[in-house]
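Why do we care about 3D structure at all? Because function follows from shape, and shape follows, mostly, from sequence. That is the central idea of this module. The next example makes it concrete: a single protein chain, its amino acid sequence, and then its structure expressed as tokens.
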Amino acid sequence: MQIKINRIDDNYAMEAVNEDGNSLLMDGSVAIGGSNKGMRPTQLLLSAVGGCSAIDIISILKKQKQVIESFEIIVDGEKENVIEYSLFRKIHMRYILKGTIDKEKAIRAAQLSIEKYCSVSKTLEPTAEITWSVHVNE
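And the structure:
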């Protein structure tokens, strides 16, 4: 796996491109001289854990013939300053699903994702407490 990152302005705006040619924009905050042209790297990290888990859950529920009409994840992260950098110490993912879905199956799919399948959550696990909740047709 390879990602190429190119600076696209005189400050912190960058474009990341994967091997398939897909891209996304990153930037620093205005407070440090960025232009808000893209997500900050730590925001991408939260996006990655949510996206990774979403793929797991959707895959599991599809195999169980559950009908997902809509799927949303709200990912909240709390950071703690450690020396010159900060680490996510708490991440909570709120899965919001609508459709013809057995809630117990959705809960089990979320549990399997976080505890077994999601490589991003497993990468963050040593430094962050990852919690989650499942809401079906609420």
